[in-house]
């Protein structure tokens, strides 16, 4: 048995980003930049006004109120060449218009009498005020986004501002999902005696998608060699393979043996984590194979703690672990030292601190507690039970958690 931390390190050391591709900026949200982005020009390209108002010489405005002659008008989109602010004069200017020669300040219209021929300024003027200076955001030649950056609306805005219609991103890995077991029937059929619906495939497909990858559903491998061989060979054609169930020490648990027969090299089996102990990890060539326990709660928790970080890494992401933060327990938690324990929690914020209560029965067979969990506590292997008032490390569970505010 290896530790939770060793298991994670082993996985993250073994996986690499898949290839890259160039895609249109419109498709790039949620993808990861695969090259540094270097500014081809200054942003902004020229000094321009930050306000609707008047372009002035600050030296003309030392005594307030002050009256200036209005000699021109510069709307947004005006080129501005040839327009000059002469001594004792002002040019009416709109937000975004290039500031004219001679001007070193813009006075917002709200601080004037809004005059057309002559304007009276009612507030003191500081040199440089309300001017956006050329290159003050990003100078030409500067790397403004590093390879590995997650592309969100702000990154899209900046890439668009620099005219970058096509962006190099990491390819989305294709992740094969294979369930195993004779008891499984596919969604759409009513389970007969001894049968259950193959819910793990659907849940894993959703989790794979939420992690930015493309799920490829392989179906069900039955509890015999031939079926496992056939389905696994198919699954190994993807960038990664996730199997569920058949990885414990039961008579019908064939996953690890068949993977070995197909040439996969097992890097570990059995991790000091509860739930999820029987998790195995192997490499088939460079293809990672995550063999998760079949109990749906264990499958989801081991996906969250081991597979999700790996899938993010395979997309070039650098921040692959959810950030941990402290929460105060409202109630005691039972735990034996020896394994990391993952506890499903609900969270509340009060007086600037997070407080946690159990999301329900923590037995691994209780799926409802998983549904109700907003966060997972990661309790270190060395620790025993916790008392109410103790602090624990937690991370949010899922990307769309809804927290009720009080
Ligand atoms: P196993 O590891 O094969 O012994 O399976 C562990 C438990 O998980 C058993 O109760 C299975 O019925 C259940 N299980 C296995 N595969 C799935 C699946 N695809 N969907 C839902 N439950 C499953
Ligand atoms: Mg089974």
Structure description:
The chain is α/β, with parallel strands linked by helices. The chain folds into 4 domains: 2-16 and 172-314, Molybdenum Cofactor Biosythetic Enzyme, Chain A (3-Layer(aba) Sandwich), CATH 3.40.980; 20-43 and 148-170, Molybdopterin biosynthesis moea protein, domain 2; 48-132, Beta Complex (Molybdopterin biosynthesis moeA protein, domain 3); 325-405, MoeA, C-terminal, domain IV (Beta-clip, Beta Barrel). The chain has 7 helices and 26 strands. It has helices spanning 4-14, 153-161, 199-210, 225-235, 255-261, 296-314, 367-372; strands at residues 2-3, 20-24, 37-38, 48-49, 53-56, 66-74, 89-93, 105-108, 118-121, 131-132, 143-145, 166-170, 174-180, 184-185, 196-197, 214-221, 240-244, 265-269, 271-274, 280-284, 287-292, 325-329, 340-350, 353-358, 375-379, 391-396. It has a 6-stranded mixed beta sheet, sandwiched between helices. The protein has a 5-stranded mixed beta barrel with strand order 22-24-23-25-26. The chain has a 5-stranded mixed beta sheet with strand order 8-5-7-6-9, with no helix packed on it. Strand 20 and strand 21 (287-292) form a beta hairpin. Helix 3 (199-210) packs parallel to helix 6 (296-314). The longest helix is centred in the last third of the chain and has 19 residues, at 296-314. The two termini are 44 Å apart. 38% of the residues are buried. The structure holds adenosine monophosphate and magnesium ion. Magnesium ion (MG) is lined by residues 180-181, 245-246, 252, 294. Adenosine monophosphate binds at residues 179, 181, 183-184, 196, 198-201, 244-246, 248, 250, 293-296.
């Amino acid at each position: 048995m290896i530790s939770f931390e060793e298991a994670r390190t082993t996985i993250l050391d073994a996986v690499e980003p898949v290839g890259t591709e160039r895609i249109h900026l419109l498709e790039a949200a949620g993808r990861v930049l695969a090259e540094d982005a270097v500014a081809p020009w200054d942003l902004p390209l020229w000094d321009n006004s930050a306000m609707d108002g008047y372009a002035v010489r600050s030296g003309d405005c030392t005594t307030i109120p002050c009256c200036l002659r209005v000699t021109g008008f510069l709307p947004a989109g005006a080129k501005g060449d040839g327009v000059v602010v002469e001594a004792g004069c002002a040019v009416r200017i709109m937000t975004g218009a290039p500031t004219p020669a001679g001007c070193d300040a813009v006075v917002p219209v709200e601080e004037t009498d809004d005059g057309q021929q002559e304007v009276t300024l009612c507030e003191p003027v500081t040199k440089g005020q309300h001017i956006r200076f050329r290159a003050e955001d990003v100078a030409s030649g500067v790397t403004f986004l590093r390879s590995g950056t997650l592309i969100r609306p702000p990154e899209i805005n900046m890439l668009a501002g620099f005219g970058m219609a096509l962006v190099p991103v990491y390819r989305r890995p294709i992740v094969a999902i294979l369930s195993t077991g004779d008891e499984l029937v596919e969604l759409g059929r009513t389970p007969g005696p001894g049968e259950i619906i193959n819910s793990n495939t659907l849940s894993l497909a959703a989790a794979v998608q939420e992690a930015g990858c493309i799920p490829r559903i392989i179906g069900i491998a039955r509890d015999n060699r031939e079926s496992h061989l056939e389905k696994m060979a198919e699954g190994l054609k993807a960038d990664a393979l996730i199997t569920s169930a058949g990885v414990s020490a039961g008579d019908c648990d064939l996953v690890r043996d068949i993977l070995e027969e197909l040439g996969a090299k097992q890097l570990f089996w059995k991790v000091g984590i509860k739930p999820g102990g029987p998790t195995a990890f192997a490499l088939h060539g460079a293809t990672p194979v995550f063999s998760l326990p079949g109990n749906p709660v264990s499958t989801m928790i081991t996906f969250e703690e081991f597979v999700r970080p790996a899938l993010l890494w395979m997309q070039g992401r650098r921040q692959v672990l959810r950030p941990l933060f402290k929460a105060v327990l409202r109630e005691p938690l039972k735990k034996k030292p020896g394994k990391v324990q993952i506890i499903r929690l609900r969270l509340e914020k009060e007086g600037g601190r997070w407080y946690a209560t159990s999301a329900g029965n923590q037995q691994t067979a209780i799926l409802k507690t998983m549904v109700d969990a907003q966060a997972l506590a990661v309790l270190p292997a060395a620790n025993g039970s916790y008392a109410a008032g103790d602090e624990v490390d937690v991370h949010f569970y899922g990307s769309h958690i809804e927290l009720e505010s009080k």
